[in-house]
């Protein structure tokens, strides 16, 4: 079973940009979300994926991700995820032995910038970069599925 352990933070400055890669544009949507799991479709220039994630239990959740044909992802995004589309650019930013993923949202969520870091264990210690602020891991407003539905994150941007 695949398990994801990650923490999520608001980004409070642009200092991360000096260390970031070129970024990649992502388009994603939700075929289903709520209850025990969500099913996400994601498309970028370098591939497409279908991801199933369990509901969050603290920092840990089950995650299953599968590569799918880009044409299938495009079709699902256009026909099955119309009301739940997210557009963002994801940057990979190294810091203190970890690789952070910084998401800069576009479209309806423009202005929102989040940073995520994956961990090997719940109690793993790491240094926070100066460019991150409040932790929002447990705040349901900052889950991508909630952002897709525009459920209240605006007040925190």
TrEMBL record:
Pfam families: CYTH. SUPFAM superfamilies: CYTH-like phosphatases. The active site is at residue 30. Residues 2-149 form the CYTH domain. Transmembrane segments: none annotated. This is CYTH domain-containing protein.
């Amino acid at each position: 079973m695949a398990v994801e352990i990650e923490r999520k933070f608001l980004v409070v400055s642009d200092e991360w940009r000096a260390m970031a890669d070129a970024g990649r544009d992502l388009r994603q949507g939700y075929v289903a979300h709520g209850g025990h799991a969500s099913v996400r479709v994601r498309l970028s220039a370098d591939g497409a994926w279908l991801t199933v994630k369990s509901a969050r239990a603290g920092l840990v959740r089950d995650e299953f991700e599968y590569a799918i044909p880009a044409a299938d992802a495009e079709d699902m995004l256009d026909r099955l995820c119309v009301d739940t589309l997210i557009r963002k650019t994801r940057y990979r930013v190294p810091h203190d032995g970890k690789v952070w993923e910084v998401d800069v949202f576009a479209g309806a969520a423009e202005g929102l910038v989040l940073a995520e870091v994956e961990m090997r264990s719940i109690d793993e210690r790491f240094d926070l970069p100066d460019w991150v602020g409040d932790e929002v891991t447990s705040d349901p407003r900052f889950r991508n599925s909630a952002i897709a539905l525009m459920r209240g994150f605006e007040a925190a941007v």
